[in-house]
Design brief:
- It comes from Acetonema longum DSM 6540.
- One of its GO terms (cellular component) is cytosol.
- Keywords: Cell cycle, Cell division, GTP-binding, Magnesium, Metal-binding, Nucleotide-binding, Septation.
- Pfam families: MMR_HSR1.
- A seven-stranded mixed beta sheet has the order 1-3-4-2-5-6-7, sandwiched between helices.
- The protein has a single domain, classed as P-loop containing nucleotide triphosphate hydrolases (Rossmann fold, 3-Layer(aba) Sandwich), CATH 3.40.50.300.
- The chain is α/β, with parallel strands linked by helices and 205 residues long.
- The chain has five helices and seven strands; from the N terminus they run E-E-H-E-E-H-E-H-E-H-E-H.
- 32% of the residues are buried.
- The structure holds guanosine-5'-triphosphate and magnesium ion (MG).
- Guanosine-5'-triphosphate binds next to helix 1.
Length: 205
């Protein structure tokens, strides 16, 4: 399986602005600067598809991308379309209190409305234990019955020997098993194949 092509569609802050269609949709959330936009670019092998920045707070709207997948199974090849959704980060305090509340509202609306939402990848920086905002968001998604899965990002930033320990901390803090966590580096592309395989499982459902 691999991505053939990916294109930016639209930025939205309200439901009426979401693109039409019934293709499966995958959303990427996490703290500001955790690497959501970079991960989308890495999976799509398309630099500059989603805008990234070293300064937190780059993504401010709900950004939709159309991604064309090639699947090969049982000796046959199939093409599928899917939406990737890049979201603003949470846990970033620079914006004013009222802006934050509004932010929460339109993100919440997004998660509660979408019938085509098949997976939410919640990204956690592999170097640090999940913070309170990560835990609260994770619990909220689970309470809503939404299909959330954790991706530990920036794996190039720690040594292999420390990886296991860090994965244990992340898993324990969120109340999941370490084996359920995907690991990725947008810098090296490590873990990209596992992510693609995971996405394909969604497409084959
Ligand atoms: P917001 O849109 O502000 O919420 O941030 P984001 O989560 O979309 O993060 P973004 O992809 O913009 O990346 C933030 C910074 O982290 C950028 O400087 C990236 O180059 C860097 N970064 C992202 N992924 C990786 C990674 O896997 N490895 C390394 N070393 N740096 C990364
Ligand atoms: Mg971003």
């Amino acid at each position: 399986p691999d991505v053939i092509r990916a294109e930016y569609l639209i930025s939205a802050v309200r439901q009426e602005q979401y693109p039409p269609g019934d293709e499966p949709e995958i959303a990427f959330i996490g703290r500001s600067n955790v690497g959501k936009s970079s991960l989308i670019n890495s999976v799509c092998r398309h630099r500059g598809l989603a805008l990234t920045s070293a300064t937190p707070g780059k993504t401010q709207t709900i950004n939709f991308f159309r991604v064309f997948f090639k699947l090969s199974h049982n000796n046959s090849e199939a093409r599928r379309q899917i939406f990737f959704v890049d979201l603003p980060g949470y846990g970033y305090a620079k914006t004013g209190r009222s802006t934050r509340r509004q932010w929460a509202k339109f993100i919440e609306e997004y998660f509660l409305q979408s019938s085509r939402l098949k997976r939410i990848y919640q990204l956690i920086d592999i170097r640090h234990p999940p913070m309170e905002s990560d835990i609260l968001f994770h619990q909220w998604l689970r309470r809503q019955g939404l299909p959330v899965k954790i991706v530990a990002t920036k794996s190039d930033k720690i040594t292999r020997s420390r990886m296991k320990e860090h994965m244990g901390v992340i898993a324990r803090t969120l109340g999941i098993e370490p084996e359920q966590i995907l690991i990725h580096s947008a810098l090296s592309g490590a873990g990209r194949d596992e992510l693609l395989d995971d996405i394909v499982q969604i497409l084959l459902q």
